[in-house]
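A.,

Following up on our hallway conversation. Structure tokens first:
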């Protein structure tokens, strides 16, 4: 704030009057003792001296006070100009709730002329449904108890609603009176913009839900047709091909559907996704009652563009295990483990096929398309894979660094 302290403050005026008084006493006594002796009596001299003192002191004091009032008025006009230059509405309300001081921005918000606004009760601009709350808030302010920042809606002179954010504080005068000073920021346009954004967001959510619903329906139709086709195929390799493609589509559909149900559109919980994908793949191969499934999964949030290829790799490995990875129909075991360590993710898929091939690249064990899909998706994840025999069976291991990947997850297929 621009401010310069007046030169003639109370201390300066008192000091000047003191110097003038001392000088006057000494000067007039000297003048009476030397120059006017014999011309006037002592009584007459004292009367003349008193009259001159009163005249000169009054004139000097008037000049000093006039100069001081002028400087005060200048500072007052400067303060009013600064307040009027801001777009924040500022008003001072007495304890009776009447406006006693305000700037031009507040006049514009209220929609009243200055002469009508001065002395007007603030209740005139408060909507009926907020009057009780505003009065309570005002009384608390006078007691110094109310929170300072609030949002309100008030009516201007044309009954138009204006949304404002207020910051109020208590102001006490030297005479013991209490005033509330309020600063109002017009947030009507901000509120309208927020409402428009919320409406646009709701429309986009509705549109997204419709798109997801249609995509899921299309996935369901495609997988349903493939499953129906398997009933009319006598050739086992053709049946396996249809089931493999059904599992791939279901894996993508599951991840997409879980992403939509999630709070985030960029990350998804791996544990729940793996459980869901595994369950649907087992059901696709009609092996739900024959496979002993077990899980050991850590809670890991993964970027969607890594979850999609990871889910497809899971689909390929599980599909192969369910089709070719068991010697006995009565003893099928699958265990899936998930670990995170040192910024990397490890997925382990173990079965009890003790006669399985030691190497994944053996094409007698794994079809060339399945192998190519796994290799491509692993490169996309910038990871590595292995498949090794164990005492209990065969374990497939997938390791890849956890990253926030931009773009479409399966763009490289």
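Then the amino acids I'd put at each of the 413 positions:
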């Amino acid at each position: 704030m621009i401010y310069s302290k007046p030169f003639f403050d109370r201390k300066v005026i008192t000091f000047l009057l003191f110097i003038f008084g001392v000088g006057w006493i000494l000067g007039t006594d000297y003048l009476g003792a030397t120059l006017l002796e014999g011309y006037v009596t002592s009584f007459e001299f004292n009367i003349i001296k008193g009259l001159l003192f009163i005249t000169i002191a009054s004139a000097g004091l008037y000049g000093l006070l006039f100069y001081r009032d002028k400087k005060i008025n200048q500072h007052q006009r400067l303060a009013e100009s600064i307040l009027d230059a801001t777009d924040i509405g500022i008003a001072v309300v007495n304890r009776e709730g009447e406006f006693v001081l305000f700037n031009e921005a507040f006049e514009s918000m209220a929609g009243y002329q200055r002469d009508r606004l001065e002395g007007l009760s603030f209740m005139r601009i408060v909507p009926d449904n907020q009057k009780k709350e505003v009065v309570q808030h005002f009384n608390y302010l006078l007691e110094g108890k109310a929170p300072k920042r609030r949002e309100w809606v008030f009516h201007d002179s044309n009954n138009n609603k204006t949304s404002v954010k207020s910051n109020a504080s208590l102001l006490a005068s030297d005479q013991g009176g209490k005033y509330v000073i309020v600063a109002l920021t017009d947030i009507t346009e901000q509120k309208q913009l927020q409402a428009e954004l919320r409406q646009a967001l709701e429309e986009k959510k509705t549109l997204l839900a419709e798109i997801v619903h249609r995509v899921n329906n299309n996935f369901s139709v495609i997988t349903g047709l493939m499953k129906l086709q398997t009933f009319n195929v006598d050739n086992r390799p053709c049946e396996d091909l249809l089931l493999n493609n059904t599992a791939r589509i279901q894996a993508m559909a599951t991840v997409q559907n879980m992403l939509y149900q999630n709070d985030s559109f960029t990350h998804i919980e791996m544990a729940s996704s793996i459980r869901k994908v595994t369950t649907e793949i087992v059901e696709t191969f009609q092996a739900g009652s024959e496979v002993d499934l077990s899980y050991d999964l850590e809670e890991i949030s993964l970027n969607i563009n890594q979850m999609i290829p990871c889910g497809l790799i899971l689909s390929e490995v599980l599909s192969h295990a369910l089709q070719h990875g068991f010697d006995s129909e009565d003893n099928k075991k699958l265990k899936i483990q998930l670990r995170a360590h040192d910024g990397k993710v490890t997925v382990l898929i173990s079965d009890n096929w003790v006669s399985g091939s030691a190497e994944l690249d053996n094409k007698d064990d794994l079809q060339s398309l399945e192998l190519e899909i796994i290799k491509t998706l692993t490169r996309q994840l910038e990871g590595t894979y292995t498949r090794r025999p164990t005492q209990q069976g065969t374990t497939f291991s997938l390791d890849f660094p956890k990253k926030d990947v931009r773009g479409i997850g399966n763009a490289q297929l």
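The chain has a mean pLDDT of 76. Curious whether your intuition agrees with the design.

B.
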